[in-house]
């Protein structure tokens, strides 16, 4: 709350000396341009992160396998992840967002199955790839051998992508 509002009761009582000091110490109140609430999915509402987006793009182009965005809660990491596909225009990358927020209590096999479903759905809906259901590993198979995801599922997916690279954007990874 600006100092002028805190001192308003005193100013109304006629303390002229306090009033003049109050006006000298108040600052212009500026509206915070960032929205507190859910992540920003609308590209028109996202701004001010050019340096971070350039950092991500540079690292992707250099072949970095892991890029970690970390910071305090509520500073916009999820919004950045959601905007990366809009702001990094490259035919080389297939950006797939996966939120782990409510998945911390699930067994690994379930999470891997959900991630595999997300990947397949994205490729079908956004790249119009024709994939059969046989590519999706079952939860039971993933429970008995989680490496099926990286050793079988992902290589099969990459065969259909040609030169494209999947960029998995895992949100709330610390869960």
List the defining traits of the structure above:
disordered N terminus; 2 strands; two-stranded parallel ribbon; mainly alpha; single chain; 2 domains; 175 residues
What does this structure look like?
The protein is mainly alpha-helical. It folds into two domains: 1-30, no CATH class; 43-171, no CATH class. Helix content is 47%, strand content 8%. It has seven helices and two strands. It has helices at residues 3-12, 16-25, 50-61, 77-87, 108-126, 139-144, 148-161, and strands at residues 93-99, 165-171. It has a two-stranded parallel ribbon with strand order 1-2. Helix 1 (3-12) packs antiparallel against helix 2. It is globular and about 60 Å long. Residues 1-26 have low confidence and may be disordered.
Structure, briefly:
The chain is mainly α. Helices cover 47% and strands 8% of the residues. The chain is built from 7 helices and 2 strands, in the order ααααβαααβ.
